[in-house]
Amino acid sequence: MASFSPQEYAFVLDVVLALIAGILIGAERELRGKPGGINTQSFVIGGAAIFTFISRTMLPNTPGSIAAGIVTGIGFLGAGIILKDKGGMVSNITTAASVWFSAAIGMAIGFQLYLIAFTAVIFSIFVPRIPSLRKKAEKSNFKS
């Protein structure tokens, strides 16, 4: 029977936590009919956690180098998600922001900052439920 190192067990824990976080955040988005659901969130959080774990493990003196690359790469991904139609309306900004935020959660998991990651997951589920002032204003203008 194979013997695994403590690092490998820590990695498995990180990936499992990343999956749970991705499912929670993605399910919240899917239940509201928004893009960037379970698959997207799980891959972003998991990927960021894996890159961060590798960075922390392989480059213990400079873990920020890979972390900086994650932030840049997710920025490009987010930019590709945002759309602007011919009328000038911009959409998917929240989806791009949720992907960016999910990468931060993955990095927290990768650095084994579990309380921070858990708090951020709760934050990301709560924030979309805050009533939108713009939507309330549009409804009141429609009734007028």
Number of domains: 1
For the biggest β-sheet, the strand order reads 1-2
> Strand tally, please?
2
Shape: elongated
Set down the secondary structure blueprint.
Layout: H1 6-31, H2 38-58, H3 64-81, E1 83-84, E2 90-91, H4 93-110, H5 114-126, H6 133-143
Antiparallel strand pairs: 1-2
Helix pairs in contact: 1-2, 1-4, 1-5, 2-3, 2-4, 3-4, 4-5
Describe the structure.
The chain has 6 helices and 2 strands, in the order H-H-H-E-E-H-H-H. The chain is mostly helical and 144 residues long. It has one domain. Strands 1-2 form a two-stranded antiparallel ribbon. A hairpin with a 5-residue loop joins strand 1 and strand 2. The protein is elongated and about 65 Å long. 31% of the residues are buried.
Task: Give the key terms.
mainly alpha, elongated, 6 helices, single chain, two-stranded antiparallel sheet, 3% strand, 144 residues, 2 strands
Structure described in brief:
By secondary structure, the protein is mainly alpha-helical. Helix content is 74%, strand content 3%. Helix 1 (6-31) runs antiparallel to helix 2.
